[in-house]
Each structure stands twice: as C-alpha cells, then as structure tokens.
Write a structure and sequence with these properties.
single chain, 333 residues, alpha+beta, Double Clp-N motif, Alpha-D-Glucose-1,6-Bisphosphate, Chain A, domain 4, 2 domains, seven-stranded antiparallel sheet, 12 helices, 9 strands
Length: 333
C-alpha cells in the first residue's frame, strides 16, 4: 500500500471516529481530545499501544470529561456538562474537525512521516497545548510511556486471514476487498451481534428491514430484506425496482470465530451475489475484526468491458467496507 493511500485511509477513519465521539457530546466540531478517543479505538498499532497501557475507551472518555470539567471550574464557573448521548454523526450533518486537529493529521503525513495512526499519535502527544498530557496523566500514563511504546517493535496479536480459513479467497475468479476494525467488546459479544439477522440493517446500508422468515443462527438459512426508503437523516431514497428486494443467506456461522452473509438481488439475476465475511480474533481491550467482501467476476466480454472500471470498483468497495466497519464498532460504543 502506498504512503498516500495509507495516509488517506487513516485520515478518513480517524476523522470519522473523532466526529462520532464529538456527536455523542452534542458537538459539531471534533478537537484533539476526540482524535485521542479515535486513536484509542484504532485497529492500527497506535490503538494497541494505548490499549496496552490499560486505556479503554470508557476510561478515556471519563478522563476527557473530567479534564473539561476541571477547566471550566478553574475559570470560576460552576456548571455540569450535559450527559453524553448516543452517536448521531451518521444521522445528521454539519460536522467538521477543528483547524488544529486537521493540521495535526496533515503533519502526520508530512515529510518523513507515513500518515499512519502511529504518526498521528506521535504528533498528538507532542502537541504543545498540554491537553493530551493532562488527559494521559488522569489515565495513569505519560507522554514518555506512549513514545517509548511507539518506538518498540510491535507484536501483532490479530490473526490475518488465510486462504484456508477465508471463503472469500477461494477460487481465482473471485474478486475481493478487505479492511480491519477494532471493536471494544468481547469476541463472543461481537459474534452474537454479527450472526443475528436483526442487526444486518444496522451495518448493511442496502438493507432497511428484514422479514423474519427463517430460524437464526443456522448456516444456509435465508431471509428476505427490503431496501431502505429513507436515509438516516430522514431524506427519501430512490431505489430502482430490481434492487428493492434482497435475499440474505447466512453462509457461515463458526461460533466466536467467523460469520459470513451472502447478499443477492432476486429481481436482478444478472448481478453476482456478494459475500460479506467477518473473522474475529481477541486483541487487547476487545476484538479485532477482519471484514472481507467478495464476489464472482464476470467472464468473457463482460469482464473485458469491466476492466477500466476496476479502480472505481475498488474505491466503492473500500467505502462500503469502511461503512460496515464503522457501523459494527459503533454498535458497541
């Protein structure tokens, strides 16, 4: 992966999670403390460094809140911050990063930097305002603790998908894309969430509702879904008739390890089914989830015609995977 692509993907994911955390507090701007919370949730090495220091997302949120309360009190103002609510970023609009947060992410991808979450974390802990130093102190850690761990070789404890384990990799005629996500919950909890058909509309944007016409948890069981009619923000959606129904099959259900769902359009038989697969492994502070989407490539002249569209297709698949990863993580936050 090129430095540019890595930096762009890291920036997009960290910005998204920071804005989600800001939305919990009723804010429209995400500042550096929200970026810190996003890094605690990162699936990259930076997240494992922070969680390895014993920093959970619950503890980090508490420290940020206490820091703000003390700052307000130091001004002689007696006030209580409103209780945070659920994440509403994906249902509303008008959010942005503060200038210093956007600049910090930009510096992490600058000269002699690779744009990774580790680079962002390095820039964050040396940021001169002292805010992150104070938050780390509340969490029983220091800037030096973080920097030392960032410089150490990492022992990766998340399993990579293998050809033997992943159905998505079987067969040379299949195309696929994958991403990873950290979820702050146990493997069992994440598996139970993913295997439940009732939760499919929460992470699969093309499904708005499901008919309860099969027994859950049994591989091979098939449900019928309907496309959403409105967006999360309430705006109506226009869906072409052939794509209003989806057939949803539970393809794989290996307890606490793997779940795979196969999606097809019964009214559009020329479209190829898409397999969305989740592989789960324990990691410090929660679960590492590898998400893969795969489909059978067209053969013959249709495959040749589709070649120029491959870069666009890859980008759209990456967007879909990012949305799925965000939705699964959000379910436990």
């Amino acid at each position: 992966m090129s430095k540019f692509i890595q930096a762009a993907q890291t920036s997009q994911m960290l910005s998204l999670m920071a804005l989600e955390e800001a939305s919990r507090q009723g804010l429209r701007e995400a500042d550096i403390e929200h970026l810190f919370l996003a890094l605690v949730l990162s699936d990259q090495a930076a997240g494992r460094v922070l969680r390895g220091l014993g920093i959970s997302i619950e503890d980090a949120r508490r420290a940020v809140r206490e820091q703000h309360e003390d700052q307000i009190s130091s001004l002689g103002i007696r006030a209580e911050l409103p209780e945070p609510g659920r994440i509403v970023f994906h249902e509303t609009d008008g959010y942005e990063l503060t200038r210093r947060t956007a600049d910090l992410i930009g510096r992490a991808a600058g000269k002699n930097r690779d744009g990774s979450a580790s680079s962002v974390l390095h820039e964050l802990v040396v940021e001169p305002s002292g805010l992150i130093d104070d938050i780390l102190h509340r969490l029983g850690a220091t800037r030096a603790d973080v920097l030392v761990r960032l410089d150490q070789p990492e022992e990766v404890d998340a399993a990579a998908p293998s050809e033997e384990a992943s159905e998505a990799s079987k067969g040379s005629v299949r195309a696929s894309g994958s991403t990873q996500a950290f979820v702050p919950a146990s493997v069992d909890m994440v598996w139970e969430y993913l295997v439940n058909p009732d939760h499919v509309p929460a992470w699969q944007g093309s499904v708005g509702s499901i008919e309860r016409d099969a027994q859950e948890g049994i591989p091979g069981a098939v449900w019928h879904g309907h496309a959403p009619t409105v967006r999360p923000d309430g705006k109506p959606m226009k869906i072409r008739p052939p794509f209003r129904r989806r057939e949803i099959e539970l393809a794989v259900a290996h307890r606490a390890e793997r779940v795979a769902w196969r999606f097809s359009y019964p009214d559009a038989p020329r479209t190829n089914p898409i397999l969305t697969e989740f592989m789960l492994t324990h990691t410090t502070g929660g679960t590492q989830v590898i998400i893969t989407m795969s489909w059978t490539r067209h053969r013959g002249w249709r495959r040749v015609i589709g070649l120029p569209l491959r870069p666009v297709q890859k980008f759209l698949i990456w967007i879909s995977l990012s949305q799925i990863a965000a939705a699964v993580s959000r379910a436990f936050r």
